[in-house]
Write a structure and sequence with these properties.
Radius of gyration of chain B: 23 Å
Largest interface: A-B, 69 and 79 residues
Largest sheet of chain B: 11 strands, mixed
Helix content of chain B: 10-25%
Oligomer: heterodimer
Number of helices of chain B: 5
Strand content of chain B: 35-45%
Helix content of chain A: 40-55%
Number of helices of chain A: 5
Structural class of chain A: alpha+beta
Strand order of the largest sheet of chain A: 1-2-3
Number of strands of chain B: 21
CATH topology of the largest domain in chain B: Immunoglobulin-like
Largest sheet of chain A: 3 strands, antiparallel
Strand content of chain A: 15-25%
Radius of gyration of chain A: 29 Å
Number of domains of chain B: 3
CATH architecture of the largest domain in chain B: Sandwich
Order of helices and strands of chain B: HEEEEEEEEEEHEEEEEEEEEEEHHH
Number of strands of chain A: 8
CATH class of the largest domain in chain B: Mainly Beta
Order of helices and strands of chain A: HHHHHEEEEEEEE
Shape of chain B: globular
């Protein structure tokens, strides 16, 4: 079986593939547990990375106020020197109003570049304040801060003909616990032993 | 018993190298410790360790893949085993259990047990063992128990063993009354139920709301539980509610009354939710929060948890229209347990909503892979 390369799977995990490529990869994932696991792992990493790589806190209001002040400073400097105009040909290249305006412009450009490079973060849709328990494509996990503990099952849903109909039978049954837990029950495909895994959290 | 020598320094160095090379590398010794208490009825006959680590962006991913061959060195038949898994270096408060119910391991026999764990954490130096795997308990055929029981695995294993006996008896009765064809029909019915059971993706958050208000603008309301009751249940639900907003529900609280003549020390409630289209799902179980509960005959107590759950299906939120609860498990002070029988579950149409027991799942898997004769042979063992 030809497997998509790692970059394609990473793009699939982020929903960044075009419709045709996505359709092809989806078809492959239906048949290939290994690639499904890899996509799940990329998705998990994507969930994790924004937390790890969160930009430092930027005080947007303060930055805007500083930019305004710098522009005013530049304009004020221009007003001060306008009273005694000198012939352009006698003026040094970087002096007086020119220097002030250039300085203010550079400041504006620098501040603008910082803002454009780090746009104001959008409000998080699913901000997590506590400990999170959930199922993943190949297991169950407990997540807190940057650390994740995940139990994998390796079991895959199967299709079988029942009463003349092809049915998809889930291989894993998940059991959430309202006290803060997640469980999975399955028959281990390797050992054929019934297995129950749970993740919990202790304060 | 300790498998593998400690090598914290080697581990620190190894993880640094792994992060630099950003590729799969086998884990060094000292990464996993397996501990068996003194007098353990189990011995580890063999360990196959295929654990690996790799760097992925700013995170380190460690895949601990252990295949153990365990030998029963007691003189009794083992019916269940539970491990407690701790990864202190990665998930400070997080821990896990791996249990094997429905075993049938005689004295001197061995059986395979797999533990597959993935740890993800920001790349940083780590020291000491990444994971400790401790035997938490062993359940024998006569329902006696061995082990430190830090996870209350004696109760959970006994509950699973009761379910296993209940479902084995059910299939054995069908075989005795109708022969192999009837057993085959019952297995196909079980697999059909498993295929058609409505399933929800549930996320549980402890210590905070599931999602921000921006993502879920529906106002929060106090939704009352409706109840399913069983005539032989020792504990009855009285009233209860949870805070519900769109596809989120939090802080469930259910008051129960002990209708039996015995003191009760544990109650577990099954929680069902219905979406606006009328489809019903199993949402979660709600165990008693009080570990010291002693509910006297006629007394009342509250089963409550301070967590938030959100529900979705195929990536789309599933809004909560109404909620139903039922008593799913009771343990008395003398250790005996009650759970609804199969007839009651069928009458209340719960059999179609609840996942199959581990035993029913195992037997239907055996039938699917090896056929009706293998299944009949398996049932004869008990």
């Amino acid at each position: 079986m030809n497997h998509p390369d790692e970059a394609t799977l990473a793009l699939q995990a982020g929903g960044d593939l075009g419709p045709l490529a996505r359709w092809r990869v989806d078809r492959h994932l239906e048949r290939c547990g290994r690639c499904r696991d890899q996509v799940a792992a990329f998705q998990a990493a994507r969930e994790l990375l924004p937390k790890i790589a969160a930009p430092p806190l930027v005080h947007w209001n303060r930055m805007a106020a500083e930019m305004k002040a710098n522009i005013r400073l530049g304009l004020a400097a221009g007003e001060c020197v306008r009273a005694e105009p000198e012939p352009l040909r006698n003026t040094p290249l970087f002096a007086g109003a020119r220097a002030a305006v250039a300085f203010a412009s550079v400041l504006v450009l620098l501040a603008g570049s910082v803002v454009l490079e780090r746009p104001a973060p959008k409000p998080e849709i699913a901000a997590i304040e506590g400990v999170e328990f959930q199922t993943t494509a190949n297991g169950i996990q407990v997540r807190e801060g940057g650390g994740t503990l995940r139990l994998l099952h390796g079991a895959q849903d199967f299709r079988m003909q029942i009463d003349g109909r092809l049915r998809s039978v889930p291989a894993v049954n998940y059991t959430p616990g309202a006290q803060g837990s997640m469980g999975a029950g399955y028959v281990d495909p390797q050992t054929e032993v019934a297995t129950v895994t749970n993740v919990y959290y202790a304060d | 018993m300790r498998i593998k020598a400690q090598g914290p320094l080697a581990l620190v160095g190894f993880l640094s190298v792994a992060s630099l090379l950003a590729q799969d590398i086998p884990l060094p010794g000292g990464s996993v410790k397996i501990n068996l208490p003194d007098g353990s009825p189990l011995l580890i006959a063999r360990v196959t360790d295929q654990s690996r680590a790799r760097a992925r962006g700013a995170a380190m991913v460690i895949d601990l893949d252990l295949l153990l061959q365990l030998r029963n060195v007691s003189d009794r038949q083992i019916h269940g085993v539970t491990w407690r898994v701790v990864a202190q270096e990665v998930a400070v408060g997080g821990y896990a259990s791996v249990a094997y119910p429905s075993l049938h391991v005689g004295p001197g026999e061995t059986f395979p047990a797999r533990i597959d764990i993935e740890l993800v954490r920001p790349t940083q130096a780590m020291s000491g063992s990444l994971v400790e795997v401790n035997l938490d308990g062993v359940l024998f055929q006569d329902l006696s128990f061995f082990g430190p029981d830090r996870l209350n695995s004696s109760r959970s294993m006994m509950a699973r063993e009761m379910e296993a006996q209940r479902d084995r008896d059910y299939f054995k009765r069908i075989l005795a009354q109708g022969g192999p064809e009837s057993l085959k029909t019952a297995m196909l019915e079980s697999l059909t139920r498993q295929a058609e059971r409505p399933r929800l993706d549930v996320r549980v958050i402890r210590g905070g709301p599931a999602v921000t208000s921006a993502a879920n603008p529906a106002p929060e309301r106090a939704a009352q539980f409706a109840f399913l009751t069983f005539p032989d249940a020792p504990v009855a639900p009285v009233d209860g509610y949870a805070r519900v907003s769109g596809n989120e529900a939090r802080a469930p609280r259910i008051n129960v009354r002990n209708d039996s003549r015995q003191v009760v020390k544990y109650v577990e409630i099954g929680w069902l939710v219905r979406d606006p289209s009328g489809r019903q799902y199993l949402a979660a179980s709600i165990p008693t929060a009080d570990p010291g509960l002693l509910l006297r005959p006629g007394g009342t107590a509250s089963v409550l948890q301070d967590s938030a759950l959100d529900f979705s299906r195929d990536g789309r939120p599933v809004n909560v229209q109404d909620m139903t609860a039922y008593v799913s498990q009771v343990q008395f002070a003398d250790g005996k347990m009650w759970a609804p029988d199969r007839g009651n579950l069928e009458k209340k149409r719960l059999l179609d909503l609840l996942p199959p027991s581990n035993e029913e799942q195992r037997l239907s898997d055996l039938y699917r892979k090896k056929g009706i004769n293998a299944l009949m042979e398996e049932l004869k063992k008990y």
